[in-house]
Design brief:
Aminopeptidase; about 30% helix; about 35% strand; binds coenzyme A; acyltransferase; acyltransferase activity, transferring groups other than amino-acyl groups; Bact_Acetyltransf
Amino acid sequence: MEWMCRPDSPVPEAAEQLLASVPEWFGLPEANGDYIEAARSKETWTVKGEDGGVVGLTLVDRHFPHVAELHLMVVDRQHHGQGVGTAMVQAIEQDARQRGVKLLEVKTLGASHPDSGYARTRHFYEQMGFLPLEETDLWGDQNPCLFMIKAL
Ligand SMILES: CC(C)(COP(=O)(O)OP(=O)(O)OC[C@H]1O[C@@H](n2cnc3c(N)ncnc32)[C@H](O)[C@@H]1OP(=O)(O)O)[C@@H](O)C(=O)NCCC(=O)NCCS
């Protein structure tokens, strides 16, 4: 299926549902609460299924005009591995190039943590052209935070 990703108005209820579908990645209630709160106001991009329901969501931060950060990216569990995440990155990247944005950034769990789900997540971002930049303790000792970056 050819997925279309477009800018959307905030969809916090959809964010809550999508996060709940992937508890292995998003299992901390406090962190999920922060993401749902962020979904009320942050720039939102969605992919919708045939019934109009949201199957993929990305929230974007713009810290500086030259950079766009994928603050939250999540695809409904039933739709993993079908190109939804790829469609979201490609759409945001195309828009970023048109705006003159030079860098895409994402933070994710680093490889010094053994979680196999996040290993697939990093593989996804690497396939999308992101490079690991630096692993930091921004999220504390237990959750190494990897900065990944893609030059446009
Ligand atoms: C990571 C994620 C956004 C990718 O979106 P997606 O629609 O599943 O990915 P696509 O179908 O466009 O791309 C598939 C590629 O992603 C990789 N991938 C990463 N996580 C995957 C997953 N949970 N299921 C299937 N494929 C996954 C696959 O290995 C595949 O690469 P391959 O063709 O070499 O096998 C999505 O799987 C997801 O929401 N995962 C859980 C939450 C998460 O990790 N969010 C990012 C946190 S920083």
